[in-house]
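Quick one:
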Amino acid sequence: MTKTLLAALKGERQPRPPLWLMRQAGRYLPEYRALRAEKGGFLDLATDPEAATEVTLQPLRRFGFDAAILFSDILMVPWAIGQNLRFGAGEGPELSPALVDASLDALDPAPERLEPVYETVRRVAAALDPATTFLGFAGSPWTIATYMVAGHGSRDQAETRGYAYRDPGAFAAIIDRVIAVTVEYLAGQFAAGVDAVQLFDSWAGSLSPAQFERWVIAPNAEIVRRLRARVPDAVIIGFPKGAGGKLPAYAVETGVDALGLDETVDPEWANAVLPEGLPVQGNLDPLALLAGGAALDQAVDRILAAFAERPHVFNLGHGILQQTPIEHVQALVARVRGQA
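Output:
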């Protein structure tokens, strides 16, 4: 049975675009909230293979998406590098010690922390319908490094950007460590059963053009190169959120198989400037899905029309919002599939 979403990522245009949603396994689903309440903290849930498998499969049962996305977190990599990871109730994640005032070499590597993720992948792969694509993922080095340096997320990544300017050698060492562990992590996910992976660069939009080239394009290109040396048929989606006009350079220079577009990107512009035949993914505004109705229909139709002549995986421009009504997701699926 054909995995239509995997085929689209490999460059085969489908009669209707296959779809999945970023954060499709998450807090907008009542069954997820119930399991989260039962299991406790996020990290406990993500490192329990039985529970993480259940969370990964929940949205497929409801909506029949064309792909499952592994339930985990991008900060598993710095946790494996040796930082402590904590998810406080109602707070963002915290890493310690923050590398803005601690040494990378002082961290004790803990690769065994990734083993529960691989076990989750094996369980999900065994449970999936043969037509469903299974997506793994990791954070891209720049985004991961912003958390490692500051110890937490921020709106403008000023602390990390300043660190990279002040001490590019030390920052490059952090990036290099993230690249190495990420390649191992993604190769492990492929070995356990994923069909393709996505590189999330959630904070790529905060960099100047020269810094974007150095800290976004070059590290992602190195991950693609090394991963393909390990897994020659690896299918890789690059998602540099906020890249805007730097998207064409990212697409060409990183060598990713498909390019994820955030909601700020004009789909008609993207279709005109990106390499011919390059598969694209996206890029519905999560707030349009939250609004529903005519606003949702119009936004969906515009995206479908813009990418009608190239391989396209329908998705949001970022993660689904917690407040999104279930019926709006059902309406989205029906419209993308030509049933509404």
